Amino acid sequence: MLIETFGAARDMARLAEIAAVLIRHGFGDSVRRLGLADKLERAGHALHWNSAADLARISPPEQVRLALEELGPTFVKLGQVLAGRADLFGPEWITEFEKLHSQVPPVPLALLLPQLREDLGGEPEAVFARFDTTPLAAASIAQVHRAQLHDGTEVVVKIRRPGITEVIDADLRLMDRLAALAEAELPALKPYRPRQLVRELAKSLRRELDLAAECRHAERIAANMAPLPYIVIPRVHWAHTGLRINVQDLVNGVPGSALDQLTPEAGFDRSELARRGAHAVLKMIVEDGLFHADPHPGNVFYLPGNRIAFIDFGMIGHLTERRREELLQLLLGLVERQPQAVADVLLDWTGDEHGINLSQLEAEIEAFVDQYHGTPLAQLSLGQMLTDVTAILRDHHLGLPPDLALLIKAFISLEGMGRGLDPGFHMATEATPMLRQVVRARYQPRALATRGWQTLSRALALAGQLPHDLSRLLRNARRGRVQVGIELAHLKRVGDQLDRAANRLAMALVISALIIGSSIVMTVKGGPTLFGLPAFGFAGFMGAMAGGLWLVRAIWRSSRGHNSDEAD
């Protein structure tokens, strides 16, 4: 039963709530196709199918956004993750997902105090010289209060909302099961990889729940940014920081959303700010491999002296050295108009997917990059080029790995912020010298020697382990423990088809036996009757009719699935 699929009864109320919200926002047909309606009603939950008349005038992306907002923090975070998946969703969807925000009513201080006392080891008024009871901001996972340390340092105290972990865990369990159902029952959703998206969301949320991890990320990025004195990362006060609370220096500056305050009279040079911000984020990405994955205006402050402060490192991206090398190849291929280099990197990133036309995909990428041949560097929009490349991948139902999707989102956000500061800002112009410098640095004698030594060390370690591995292999072979695994996907599919065919044949035999047996019973006089006919014969015919209808439906659904596979 589906109820058993969804596990413990503790999740049933939330499941009913999710179904009701989806129905209210015009997704009743999807709820029916997932099989949720009948099972929930059978479990005693009433579902109201009346949709508002104006839903027909709302676009599907907006309907989804409104539903996510109503479903709460876990689903809002899902939408924020999807906002970075331009490789899976079109511009109209991304625009709606970017409207999602986590602003919620703050938790009253009285409800926070027990947890706060436990984490601080005392009353807030004793630990801090001043603690503001009114929060600066409240989001779905945590809220922020302003305070002052006894040495006079102004700080912000970020406190995780009580009980939020249990809510998120329950929602993630349900979302994982819903994603599995969606992949099985709604083939149109398969290209969007629902289960992979839920796994990506779970990793992101669990990182954000650990407020100490956010501070560790901040300190690592602060160390990386040390050569850039104009970049400010708030200092962490570890004496008061833990899993559910962190304390960092307060940043007093102009918010990234208040660009009208960045005037020459106030001592700001907007062109210089755009250039410095681009240089900092490019350094995070191509040199350090650890970057702020959500550099939107709310996470950026501008300080006197044309300094830039980054806050909120709950969402960060990691890039391995190999990824950084591939990224350099991709970005240089875009700005220097080398279509083959771009195509090679993207095909490596998307993997060897079955059912795609590789030659057509490669031709489209080459044609896209080649159209910029001869275009001056200052006229290239790197963010738009990345958006167009992901649109090509989306048309071929190919998705990027999550770390690269975050990276492209960060690049697009960065260029948008730069253009907001300075309409004459050109990301490609700023990025090209740095990209070339990083490439040259990778081929300097010292760098080559370091990589060569690392490769040699790994090869020697592997060679040293080889005799032991061969000995173990031969020992297992003598004992008959060597197993060879061969995965034949098509053979498994044939086996499944044969199994279904055997089940239908068995059902057909049962139906035939019921018809023959009922016909014989009909000729026997006496015994109970129903509608003037022998009751047992009538019941046999009804059973045969029900079985026949089931058999016809199974064959029809199988033929539909076969036709859709052929169409794909």
Write the layout of secondary structure elements.
Layout: H1 2-5, H2 12-24, H3 28-33, H4 36-42, H5 60-71, H6 73-82, H7 91-97, H8 109-120, H9 124-127, E1 130-131, E2 137-138, E3 142-148, E4 154-160, H10 164-185, H11 194-209, H12 211-224, E5 231-232, E6 245-249, E7 254-255, H13 270-288, E8 290-292, E9 300-303, E10 307-310, E11 316-318, H14 321-335, H15 339-350, H16 358-370, H17 382-395, H18 402-421, H19 427-442, H20 445-478, H21 489-522, E12 529-530, E13 533-534, H22 535-567
Structure description:
This protein has 568 residues and is α+β, with helices and mostly antiparallel strands. 59% of the residues lie in helices and 8% in strands. Strand 9 and strand 10 form a beta hairpin. Helix 10 (164-185) runs antiparallel to helix 11 (194-209) and helix 15 (339-350) crosses helix 16 (358-370). Residues 1-8, 49-56 and 563-568 have low confidence and may be disordered.
In brief, what are we looking at here?
This protein is of the alpha+beta class and 568 residues long. The chain is built from 22 helices and 13 strands.
User: Could you estimate the helical fraction of the residues in percent?
Assistant: 55-70%
* Discrete helix count: 22
The secondary-structure class comes to alpha+beta
What is the count of β-strands? 13
Q: Write down the overall geometry.
A: globular
| Gyration radius, in Å | 30 Å
Give average pLDDT, whole number: 76
Beta-strand portion reads 5-15%
Features:
568 residues, alpha+beta, five-stranded antiparallel sheet, four-stranded mixed sheet, 13 strands, 59% helix, globular, disordered N terminus, disordered C terminus
